[in-house]
Amino acid sequence: MRRRWTTLLLVVTLVATAALAGCGGKSEKTTLKVGEVTRSLFYAPQYVALEKGFFADEGLNIELTTTAGGDKTMTALLSGVIDVALVGSETSIYVYQQGAEDPVINFAQLTQTDGTFLVARQPEPTFDWQSLKGKTFLGQRKGGMPQMAGEFTLKKFGIDPQKDLELIQNVDFANISAAYASGTGDFVQLFEPTASIFEKEGRGKVVASFGAESGHLPYTVYMAKQSFTNKNKAALQSFTNAIHRAQLWVAENSAETIADVVLPYFENVDRGILISSIDRYKQQGSFAADPIIDQEEWNNLLDVMTSAGELKARTEHDAIVNTAFAEAAIEAVK
């Protein structure tokens, strides 16, 4: 009898231990190190996913860092400092065309237009793109998506960036706004909320949108190395699910509501600036409606890069784009 009770106690103990282990497993979260190319309201859905707990709901712990510039972001990704990069798709094309053995794969789109605005020193109620001719234009880094989309837009209006204006491209991404504020350039290309801050401070006036003029393209995308993608499919699927939940939430809510959620990421920015910046992006459809990087957008990206003279050969969509995660997220998140 005593032996029977000992056996029963052992079985009960094993069952309880297994149950506790199972509960512990469910509470454990997978950590993903994410690097964003800059801190901008352009990425509002990402901050919504963090603040609303969408990543946590998917069993993820996100360690977010700002890596300040496409080249630095890609270096961090390739070296393993981060697992996932939020950066322009052009960076993955550069890596692929260098013959990388472990290419970078685009798996979820966050923004679908250029996010920069043309800022002039003085208001121009009847702005004409031709007014840039003969002026000094403080642009973005050569080969980066903001600069290429900017040049694409200028050419659309018959302006040769290399001949018709003085183009400055040697200012580091993080220092462009400071350079303009100190007096460099007649026009500058800025993201939000910096553009709106400059307006409020009387340093300049938004006169046009590069996003509205350059069309839809995979402007800012989540990407990871092929090797990481193959080994972490469940985590990347959970990540994409959370991003799509945030995209739907942003689409359904007002700029005011969104601003209140993302405020912790822009503590030094006036709430009114946050609202106007988010509204600008919503009005021009900058936030992607879903995470899919489609063929048409990809082709537009290749056209923009070709126009800028930065493309050795057209990189096929299927070569470094994986839409499986996005397609599954759309099915999973209703």
TrEMBL record:
Residues 1-21 form the signal peptide. Pfam families: NMT1_2. It comes from the Bacteria. It is found in: Periplasm. Its main location: periplasm. The keyword Signal applies. One of its GO terms (cellular component) is periplasmic space. Keywords: Signal. The keyword DNA repair does not apply. Belongs to the bacterial solute-binding protein SsuA/TauA family. PANTHER family: ALIPHATIC SULFONATES-BINDING PROTEIN-RELATED, TAURINE-BINDING PERIPLASMIC PROTEIN. This is NitT/TauT family transport system substrate-binding protein. The lineage of its organism: Bacteria, Bacillati, Bacillota, Bacilli, Bacillales.
